[in-house]
Amino acid sequence: MQQYDMIIIGGGIMGCSIARELSKYKLNIAVCEAAADVASGTTKANGGLIHAGDDPVPGTLKAFLNSKGCLMYPVLSEKLGFRFLKRGSMVVGFNEDDLAVLKTLLERGRLNGAPDLELISGGRIFELEPETNRKAKYALYSPHTGLVDPFEVAIAFSENAVANGVHFYLSSPVTAIQKTEDGFAVTLPKGQLNGKYLINCAGVHADDVARLAGADEFTIQARHGDLLVMDKNCGIKDVMTLYPIPKPDSKGVVLMSTVSGNILVGSTAVMKEKDDVASYREGIDELIAGANNLIEKLDIHKVIRTFAGNRAVVVGNNNDFYIRPSRKVAGLFHVAGIQSPGIASAPAVAAYVVQMLKGCGIPMEEKKNFIDTRKAPVDFSTLSTEEQDELIRKNPAYGRIVCRCECVTEGEIIDAMHRNPQPVTVDAIKRRTRAGMGRCQGGFCQQKVISIMAKELGCSPTEIELGDKGSQIIYSKLKEGC
Amino acid sequence: MSTKELICTVCPNSCNVTVELNKKGEPVKIAGNRCPRGEAFAKQEITCPMRVITSTVVLRGEDGRDALLPVRSSDAFPLSKHAQTMELLRHITVRAPVKMGDVVIHNVLDTGVDIIASRDS
Amino acid sequence: MNEFQFDVAVIGGGPAGMAAAIEARKNGASVALVERNPHLGGILLQCIHSGFGLKCFKQELTGPEYAQRFVNQLGETDVTVLLSTMVLQITKDKKVVCMNEKGISVLNAKAVVLAMGCRERTRGEIKIPGDRCAGVLTAGLAQHYINIDNYCPGHRFVILGSGDIGLIMARRLSLEGMKVEGVYELMPYPNGLKRNIKNCLEDFGIPLHLSTTVTRVIGEKGRVAAVEVTKVDEKLQPVDGTSKIVPCDTLLLSVGLVPENELSAGAGVKLNPRTHGAVVNDSLETSVPGIFACGNVLHVHDLADNVTVEARHAAACAAAFAKGEQKESNPAITVNCEDPIGYTVPSEIYSREKASVLFRVRRPVENARMVVTSEGSILLQGRPRSYIPSTMEELVLPSAVLQKADGEITLKIESVLGGENP
C-alpha cells in the first residue's frame, strides 16, 4: 500500500496547482483523478480568462484570491512555459441603466484593488475594439484582463508537479475513504492509498467526496454552461474580451479571442444535474444571441464546436469559494465551490492552501532541490520557417503533418506521449497538441492520431478511447482474411 | 396491368423510367428513358436486378503487414448473390504485389463474373 | 532550405491535382505536384465504390481504378511528384513553402494550380446538441476507417444527411454486416444523386426520412446510445412533439462539404462566400494573377469526372500563363445569377469564343427553363426541364451570346407554368 503525506482528490486546475505548490515541500504527494486525464472537468469547459479582479463582491474569498492570483500569472507563464496574454476587456453597456451597473462594477473593482479600471464612452469604445456592437454607449475598460488556455495551465502545473515527485493516479475515481489511525485510506479501482491528509479538490463532486470521508457538511449544485468555439477564419480576430452587463450569478455570455486565436463565446448559466455536460439547443441559441449583442454579427456558419461544462456552487455560500479545513473530520481540507474566477485564482488558491495547512500545524519543510521551471513542448505551427527546418533535420517526425488544420506534427504527438502525466486518450492528445481542434474536428487526423498512440502505447487501436471511460472509437478489426 | 417506377442507374442522368407490366409481371411498355440502355436496364431490373459489387479484401503486404485491397466485380451480377459474395470476401487474404485488374476470385458463385483488384498494391 | 523552380506547381494530388499536373506537362510546362499523403489519389482511394469514369473513360470505374489510371499516366511523365509533403504557405508571388521529412523547401513557380479539395462539415458546424461522446463521426472518416484502416467503427448506425457520401456509406455498412437504422435529411428532398438513393438505400431497405433531423445525441458510458430525431417545418425548425429516440451506437454525418481554402486565403485569393471557393474567371484564374483553382477546392462537384475536366482547363491556362502567353484582351463580362441558382463558376468571362458556366440550383425546380439576359435583354432560353441541387449543371455560352453580352450576363431559371414569359 502506497503511503503519502498528502492525497489530493481531483486533478483539475485546483488539484494540479495545489500539487505543484505542495511539491515545494518535503512531502509525499498523490493526486487521484477520476477521469483519464487531468483538467477534464470544470477546467476544460472554460474560456481561460484571467480576470483582473474587478467582478467579485468585495470582502469575499473570491475577491481576495482573484486579485492575488491574476498577478501571479505573468511569472508562472514564464516559468512553466504556458501562454499568457494580456489583452484587456470591456464590460459593454447600451443605456443609462447599464451605466449605473458599470459604475457599481467600477467601484467594486477599485475596492478589490483591480488596477487602471476606466469608465469610457462613445468613440473610445470602438477605438479599443472596432468589432464592438455599434449600439454600445458605455464600457468599463480593464486593461489588465489576461488570457490563458486553462488545460495548458493545468497540464503545466501537473507536469511540473510530477517533475518534483508528485504521483498522479489517472482513471482513478475514489470509491471509498476510511479514517485510519494516522490519516485516511483511500480506495481506488486499482488499490488503496494511505494518506495523512486529504485535500478535496473534486469539483462538482467535492460534496460526494466529503461524504465518503464522513464529512457531510456542504452540498454542491452544478451551474451548467454552454460554450461555442469559432473557426480561426471567422471574419473577426484578436478581439478584446467583451462582457455584457453581468447577471446576478454569472458574468453573462462573454466573447473573447483565446490564446490560440479562436473566438470563443460562453457561457450560459443554468442549474442542472452534476454530470450533465451535454450541450443544449437553448444554450447555443443564447450564446449566439449573446455574441450578437456584443459584436455586430457572428458568422454562425463558422462555429466549429459547441461544448458545455459545470461550475460547482456550494449551496448557501453566496457563490463564494469554500476553502477551509473540514468542520467534521480532522485532516481533511476542502477546496470546493470553485467557480469563476477559478482559473484566475488558481495560483493564489494553492498558496492559500499551503498557508492553511501550515496554520493547522502541519509540518512543512521546504525542499532545496525544487524544480520551478518546466520546458514548454514545441509548438511547430508557431516556429519560424528556419526553426521548423532545423527541427525537422534533427528529427524527421516533425516533418510529418498529422493535423493539417492546426499544423500539428507527429513529433509533437510523440513528445506529448512521453510526458508525465501521460496522455492516453485522443482528447488528452488534443488538449496538449491541438491535433483535432481545428475546423475539421479530427475528420482527417483522428485515425492518424490513433495509430501513433497505439504504436507508442504498444496497444491495439481498438483500445484507444476518445476521452471518458468507455468512449471506444473503434470496436474491432473489420475483417481478418484467412 | 400494373406500372412500376424506376430510376435508371446506368449513368448519372438518372432517368425516371415507367414500366408497364402485364398480369404475369412481364414488362410490356417502357417509357421515360433517354437512351436505349435505359430500356435494357428496366427490363433487367424487373426480372433480375444486377449490380456491380465493390468491397475490400485483406492484403498481406510484402513486409508481412496487413492492409486492405479494394476489389470489384468485373461486371454486374445478380443482386441476390451479393450477400454470399461478401461473406466469401471476408475470408480471403491476397498477397502483394497485386496489379489493378488481377483476378481475386474467378467466376464468383458461378455468375460468370470475376472479383478483381481495383488498384495496384 | 532548398529552393526549386517550376513553371507550374500543383497543390494536391487527388483527381484535380493529378489531371492538372498531367495536362500542364502536356502543355509544355515543367511541373511539380505536391501531395500531403504518402499516396496519390486523394479521397478517391477510400471511394471504393463504382460510378467514376463514365465521362472521361466511357466506362464505370471504382475510385481506386479511376485514381490508378491517372497515377499510371503520371508515371509516364517527368512531373516531379512530392509525396508526404505538406504545403505550409503560398505567397502572392507564387512561392510555395512545403515541408516533409527532409525539411522545408520552397518551390518558386510561375503559376500555381490550387487543387486541395474539400473537407466535410462537422457536428460543431451544424451544432447538434447533446452529449459529447465517442461514436459521432463524419461519413468520410468512417469510410477511411472501413475501407482503408480495416476498422469497425460501430455496429448500429444512424446517418444524418442524404449527401452522396452518406448514401454510399449506408450501402457499404450494410454490405459489411452493420445495421443502418435510417438516413435522416433536414431538407424536404434528398441531397444525393438519384442513382445512389436507389442503389444504396432501396436495395438494402434502408429508410430515408425527409424533413427530419437529429436534435440530440444521447450518450451512455462514453459512447453514443441513441439519437433524438425530430421533424422540421418549412423553415427547417424542429417541430415540438415530433421527436423520437432512435437507439444506435454511431451517428454518421454527411451534411455537406466545404472547399479547403485556408492556403488560398493566405495567398490573398479572393473567395466567393457562396461556394467558399475562389472567385475565378473563365480561365479558372483567381484574383491573384497566375494562381488558378480547380476541383472541389473551387466548388464542390457532383462527379469526379467533372473535376478532371475542370482541372485540365485550369492547368492548360496555368501553363499558358507560365509561358507568358497573353490573356484575351476583351473587357470582362460579369456573370450574375438569380435565385434559385446558388452560384456560378466562373464569375467573369473574357473569352468571346465560347465559355462554360457551371452552376447549381438551391432547391429542386420542376418544369423550368434557363434564361440568360444581359442588361435586361434575353440572349438565350433553354427548353423546360427539371433542376435538382445534387446535380452540377453546365451551360455552354456560344460566341453569339458572348458577343452580344453588354458587360454582364445574368442566369435565371424561370418556371414555365408561371406564365410570366411571353
Q: Outline of this structure?
A:
The complex is a heterotrimer of chains A (482), B (121) and C (422). Chain A contains twelve helices and 23 strands.
The CATH architecture of the largest domain in chain C is: 3-Layer(bba) Sandwich
Q: What low-confidence regions of chain C span 5 or more consecutive residues with pLDDT below 50?
A: none
The chain pair with the largest interface is: A-C, 58 and 51 residues
What does the oligomeric state look like here? heterotrimer
Figure out the total of helices of chain A. 12
- Give the beta-strand count of chain C: 29
Distance between the termini of chain C: 67 Å
Terminus-to-terminus distance of chain A: 47 Å
Overall geometry of chain A comes to globular
Strand percent estimate of chain C: 35-45%
Please report which band the strand proportion of chain A falls in: under 5%, 5-15%, 15-25%, 25-35%, 35-45% or over 45%. Answer: 15-25%
What is this structure's SSE topology?
The complex is a heterotrimer of chains A (482), B (121) and C (422).
Chain A (H helix, E strand, L loop, with lengths): L1 E8 L3 H10 L6 E4 L16 E2 L10 H20 L3 E3 L2 E5 L2 H17 L5 E4 L1 H6 L9 E5 L3 E3 L1 H14 L3 E3 L6 E5 L2 E6 L2 E10 L5 H7 L7 E11 L10 E3 L10 E4 L5 E4 L3 E3 L8 H14 L8 E12 L7 E4 L6 E5 L5 H18 L25 H10 L6 E3 L4 E2 H8 L8 H8 L12 H12 L18 E2 L5
Helix pairs in contact in A: 1-5, 1-8, 2-8, 10-12
Chain B lengths: L1 E6 L8 E6 L5 E5 L4 H12 L2 E2 L2 E7 L5 E8 L3 E2 L3 H9 L2 E3 L7 E3 L9 E3 L4
Parallel strand pairs in B: 5-8
Antiparallel strand pairs in B: 1-2, 2-3, 4-7, 5-6, 6-10, 9-10
Chain C lengths: L1 E10 L3 H12 L4 E4 L15 E3 L8 E2 H13 L4 E3 L3 E5 L4 E6 L2 E12 L3 E3 L2 H4 L9 E3 H9 L3 E2 L3 E5 L3 H12 L3 E6 L9 H8 L6 E2 L2 E9 L2 E9 L12 E4 L2 E4 L3 E3 L2 H5 L24 E3 L10 H19 L10 E5 L3 E5 L2 E2 L4 E8 L3 E10 L2 E5 L3 E3 L5 E6 H6 L3 E8 L7
Parallel strand pairs in C: 1-2, 1-8, 2-5, 8-20, 10-18, 12-13, 12-18, 13-14, 21-29
Antiparallel strand pairs in C: 3-4, 6-7, 7-8, 9-19, 15-16, 16-17, 21-23, 22-24, 24-28, 25-26, 25-27, 25-29
Helix pairs in contact in C: 1-2, 1-8, 4-5, 5-6
Pfam families (chain A): DAO (PF01266), Fer2_BFD (PF04324)
Keywords (chain A): Oxidoreductase
Protein name (chain A): L-2-hydroxyglutarate oxidase LhgO
